[in-house]
Amino acid sequence: MERFQLKPTIYFGPDALAALDALAGKRVMVITDAFLSSSGLLDRVTARLTGCTVERFTEVVPDPSLALVARGARALADFRPEAVVAFGGGSPMDCAKAMVEFGKKLEAGLAPLFYAVPTTAGTGSEVTSFAVLTDTERGVKYPLVDDALLPDAAVLDASLLAGVPPAVTADTGMDVLTHAAEAYVAKQASPFSDALAEQAFSLAYEHLKPAYETAGESRAKENMLLASCMAGMAFNAAGLGLCHGLAHSLGGRYHVPHGRLNALLLPHVIQFNAADAGAARRYARLAGRCGLAQNPRALAAALNRLRAALKLPDRLSACGVEAGQLRGDMDALAEAALADLCTPTNPRSVSVLDVKAILKELV
């Protein structure tokens, strides 16, 4: 027997932030980062929290650490909110998920409503049971997977993306494509996740470059936000694969943006997985949905062209990773990728030698 579930209520379209009006009069903790807190965007959120007692936790940083989450969970437990609003990209989302879950363990009876408001089109974290935390001492990223991490509501307001820098749009957009592609070929894929993954991939493939090239609000950015959410729902059900396992391994050690690593890795992982006949057929269908020749090689080549158009690097050395350092770390990187929670649902079995071969192509 298989299972498919959708939990978060999704609010989208013009003025979607109005969904926060439902929290009027409650004790609310808003979790975000220092930049968003000072940018003026956060004021649009707090303006909706009429009559609320609001506590702001603004310490979130990229790749949130275990220590940060512990500090935040204590602050959350002490404040005892009736609702939590996670506001930002993947890092505030992941940090908030962990803070809420660990805060419940610190304070009996704590059960806040959890609203997730993304400000980038990338992680899809607003609709997933995933969070990624970093052990800064060991240089390791740990994916957490538990249905308890799912938000109660996702609020998709595309106007929040108007000021996102092009480089961030590129990084996060490639994450969307990777989520959709990996979910589509994952071992736990189903007809339900397939429908979401196909639509997410074709939307992102069509609209990422226009979103990157357009300043301010645009239809392309709105479609990228929808694609990000759909891809999140798809991989939450189907799982991911080797591309994410490797991205977590590399990102934990070298601190390269996650989407940038996915942009580098995905074409290589597609070529590797295409040795599996079932995966090859699915990649071919994705290529066809995008108007490409229906084969995995055409899909990988198109993603490389898109990466170049987005001015993303084509080698790890261009990301600041020295070749000698990479070679010295290769065994540890490969082992970490294989141990990652995302890798087991990859459609093709993977060995240490397979991972090292892919890494050697990226030096």
From TrEMBL:
Pfam family, one: Fe-ADH
Domain Alcohol dehydrogenase iron-type/glycerol dehydrogenase GldA positions: 9-157
Keyword RNA-binding: no
Fe-containing alcohol dehydrogenase-like C-terminal domain ranges (all copies): 169-362
Alphabetized GO MF terms: alcohol dehydrogenase (NAD+) activity; metal ion binding
Keywords, sorted A to Z: Oxidoreductase
PANTHER family associated with the record: ALCOHOL DEHYDROGENASE (PTHR11496), HYDROXYACID-OXOACID TRANSHYDROGENASE, MITOCHONDRIAL (PTHR11496:SF83)
The protein's name in its UniProt record: Iron-containing alcohol dehydrogenase
